[in-house]
Amino acid sequence: MATDAITAHLAQQPGIQKLPSPKLTLFVRRAFLDADTCAALCAMIDAERRPSTISDHNGDAAFRTSETCDLPATDPLVARVDAALAAFTGLDPLHGEPLQGQRYAVGQEFKAHTDYFEPNGVDFHRYCSVAGNRTWTAMVYLNEPEAGGATRFKAVDKTIQPETGKLVCWNNHRPDGSLNPATIHHGMKVRAGTKYVITKWYRELPWGW
Ligand SMILES: O=C(O)CCC(=O)C(=O)O
Ligand SMILES: [Fe+2]
After folding, report:
1. Does residue 8 fall inside a structural domain?
2. pLDDT beyond 70 at 161
3. Distance, CA of 38 to CA of 81 (rounded, Å)
4. Which of 93, 109, 115, 208 makes a 20 to 30 Å CA pair with 133?
5. Residue 81 is part of a domain; what is its CATH number?
6. Is 208 among the domain residues?
7. What region holds the Fe2OG dioxygenase domain (predicted)?
């Protein structure tokens, strides 16, 4: 589906909320996943985590301090969540990167960044030569840390609080197809407890599954 068709499809989903901003196409759907599914995903993330990485290193070793888990697409639960994300968003599952989990302990964060790859960045070819750049991001909070851990979109002055099962998705491009710097967002420091999310990024072209 074309970008505009995805936006229209999302806008029709039950329970959807659209950010009222001309600068950023972003949707929130509370209780997208049930608590049992979220808990099972948290356990998978706990079992297989590794330090998170970034592209285009900027010299700040503390830029992304969380841990990441590559969730196996062959696992029935992961496959069900993947299919639910594709159906809800209308995005082509073949254009999706493998689903990932992210875990933030107290003090961990992912500083302000965009999810697309900078066309002039040193890592662009490495990450984008096969499937192109990222199009949409879908993220689901799997739990509620006791304090901190919100996601802040500073360009539109919007802060989203973690809530078990809450889906946030946004278009990394503007309606005219250009990359949208207003998608800049910060996974803020967890102050108490642990934060878990899943992230699903979609590409311009098939991922090559
Ligand atoms: O954890 C968050 O709130 C944001 C995560 C994020 O931006 C990412 O993984 O790209
Ligand atoms: Fe991000």
Report:
1. yes
2. yes
3. 10
4. 109
5. 2.60.120.620
6. no
7. 95-204
